[in-house]
Structure to design on (145 residues):
């Protein structure tokens, strides 16, 4: 691979860095990651899938703590993996960071953050992407001071 080829390859995947999804202009269903066509509208949606930047905020639907990590992630164990429902509707799987394992709860508000995913020692590449952390929003149930 040519010099700069690895970083260019990863930069050219916008949903990895910006949470870019797309929306069917026929039925208005939102998808992440982006799709070429809507599975409901099928042919009617071809050429009618519009890119949409997602807010990166949502809530934890369910989660699990990984105690026996796959190769290249052993040093991170134990770590939480969650299914996140974004405020716009799509669901995705992501690691939860910057939070004690005991503090993670179903329904907890989270927001996307940009973090290192892994390193490839063979070619020296460091891969980055989204993970989620506890949302810093004010809790609407608490009184403002």
């Amino acid at each position: 691979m040519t010099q700069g080829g690895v970083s260019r390859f990863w930069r050219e995947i916008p949903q990895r860095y910006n949470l870019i999804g797309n929306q069917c202009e026929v039925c208005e269903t939102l998808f992440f990651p982006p799709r070429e066509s809507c599975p409901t509208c099928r042919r009617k949606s071809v050429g009618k899938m519009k890119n949409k930047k997602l807010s990166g905020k949502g809530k934890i639907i369910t989660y699990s703590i990984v105690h026996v990590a796959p190769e290249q992630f052993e040093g991170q164990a134990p770590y939480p993996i969650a299914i996140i429902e974004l405020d716009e509707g799509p669901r995705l799987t992501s690691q939860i960071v910057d939070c004690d394992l005991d503090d993670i709860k179903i329904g907890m508000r989270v927001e996307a953050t940009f973090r290192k995913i892994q390193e490839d020692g063979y070619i020296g590449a460091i891969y980055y992407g989204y993970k989620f952390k506890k949302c810093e929003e004010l809790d609407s149930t608490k009184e403002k001071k």
Remarks:
- The first strand starts at residue 20 and ends at 24.
- Residues 5-11 form the longest helix (7 residues).
- DSSP finds two helices and eight strands in the chain.
